[in-house]
Design brief:
Layout: H1 2-27, H2 47-52, H3 69-76, H4 85-95, E1 115-119, H5 131-135, E2 139-143, H6 152-155, E3 161-164, E4 178-181, H7 187-195, E5 220-221, H8 224-234, H9 244-255, E6 258-262, H10 291-303, E7 308-310
Parallel strand pairs: 1-2, 1-6, 2-3, 3-4, 4-5, 6-7
Helix pairs in contact: 3-8, 4-7
Length: 313
C-alpha cells in the first residue's frame, strides 16, 4: 500500500514539473519579446517551413528598392517583356509620384494578433456559409474579380486587399481597400498610372479597363523578387509562374500572424470553376499555373499548422 502511495506521489510530482515546464516555455518570455499575441505565431520552427519560408524577402516594391538584374531577367521572361531594367525603374518612379513610395503594412506586435483570410475564387465556396467567419479577420485578401455582392453568406462582405493585374482588374474598389498590383510587364505600371487618373490609352487589342476607381493612397505593388521567391522556394519551379491566388497566400504568411484560407482547389466535380459564374468549359484547368502543386502545398501548410485550410463543400 505504501509503495502505491509513493508511486502516486512521484507521478504527481512529475506531472506538476511537466505542467510547470510547459507553462514556463509558453509564458516565460517577456511580452515585448514575443512575436505576436496569437496563441501560436508563425515562426521558423520546423525544417519543412525553413526550407520554404524566407522572411527577408520584401513582398512589396518601394521607391528605394533596387531590383537585381537576375530577378528582372526572370520576370521579363514571364510574358515577353521587351523593355530593359532602366526602363522598368523609370516607369516605376513615375508611378511612385502618384502612389505611396513605401507599402502600408501592419507590422507585427507582441500585443496584437494579425489575422488574415485569403479568399480564393473556387466554386467550392458555394453553399459553404463561410461569410461571417471570413469577415471576422483583420486582413481579408481577395483575388482578381472575386465578387461579394449576392454571395455574402458564403464569401463575406469585407475586403481589405485585392490582388489583381490589368486583365483581371475590377472597375471600382472601396475607399478602404488596398489595390495590390501583381505586375507582369513594365506597361502594367503605365496602365495603373493612367487608370487611376485620366484614363489609360493603349493598343486596341489589349482588353483592359481604361479607368478604375481606387484609393491612390492604399496602392501596393508586388515585388518581382517576391514572385520569383514564391516560384523557386514554394513551388520548386513547377509551372511557368505562380497563380495570383498562390501569391496572395504566401503574401499572407509574410504579413499576418494567423492565416485562414478559403476557396482554393477544384469544385466537387473536379473543375477549376469560379463561385459566381456557371462553368462553360468543363475541361478548364489552371493554364500556366501549377494548380495541383499549389493545392498540395496548401494542404501541407495546413498539416504543418502554418495556416487553417477551409476546403468548402
Amino acid at each position: 500500500m505504501k509503495l502505491k502511495v509513493k508511486a502516486l506521489i512521484v507521478l504527481l510530482c512529475v506531472t506538476t514539473i511537466y505542467v510547470s515546464w510547459r507553462g514556463y516555455k509558453s509564458f516565460s518570455l517577456p511580452q515585448d519579446e514575443r512575436l505576436c499575441a496569437c496563441e501560436r505565431c508563425l515562426s521558423e520552427d520546423d525544417l519543412w517551413f525553413i526550407k520554404h519560408f524566407n522572411k527577408s524577402v520584401e513582398p512589396f516594391l518601394s521607391a528605394n528598392y533596387n531590383l537585381s538584374e537576375d530577378v528582372f531577367n526572370w520576370w521579363k521572361g514571364l510574358q515577353g517583356e521587351k523593355g530593359n531594367l532602366s526602363t522598368f525603374r523609370e516607369t516605376l518612379d513615375r508611378l511612385f509620384l502618384l502612389v505611396p513610395p513605401s507599402p502600408d503594412v501592419l507590422e507585427s506586435s507582441p500585443d496584437h494578433c494579425r489575422t488574415c483570410a485569403v479568399v480564393g475564387n473556387s466554386g467550392n465556396l458555394r453553399r459553404s456559409h463561410y461569410g461571417p467567419l471570413i469577415d471576422f479577420h483583420d486582413v481579408i485578401i481577395r483575388i482578381n474579380e472575386g465578387q461579394t455582392k449576392g454571395f455574402e453568406a458564403d464569401v463575406g462582405t469585407r475586403t481589405t486587399h485585392r490582388i489583381m493585374y490589368p486583365e483581371s482588374s475590377v472597375d471600382s474598389l472601396d475607399n478602404t481597400t488596398h489595390l495590390v498590383l501583381a505586375p507582369f510587364n513594365t506597361v502594367d505600371f503605365d496602365w495603373l498610372n493612367g487608370a487611376l487618373t485620366t484614363g489609360f490609352k493603349a493598343m486596341p487589342e489589349w482588353i483592359v479597363r481604361r479607368k478604375i476607381k481606387a484609393n491612390k493612397d492604399l496602392v501596393m505593388i508586388l515585388n518581382p523578387a517576391f514572385m520569383k521567391y514564391v516560384h523557386d522556394m514554394w513551388l520548386e519551379n513547377k509551372g511557368y509562374y505562380p497563380s495570383t491566388g498562390f501569391l496572395a497566400l504566401v503574401l499572407a504568411l509574410h504579413i499576418c500572424d494567423e492565416v485562414s484560407v478559403f476557396g482554393y482547389g477544384a469544385d466537387s466535380d473536379g473543375n477549376w470553376s469560379h463561385y459566381w459564374e456557371k462553368l462553360m468549359n468543363k475541361k478548364l484547368k489552371t493554364g500556366a499555373h501549377p494548380g495541383d502543386t499549389e493545392y498540395r502545398t496548401i494542404q501541407e501548410l495546413d498539416k504543418q499548422q502554418k495556416l487553417k485550410f477551409y476546403t468548402g463543400f
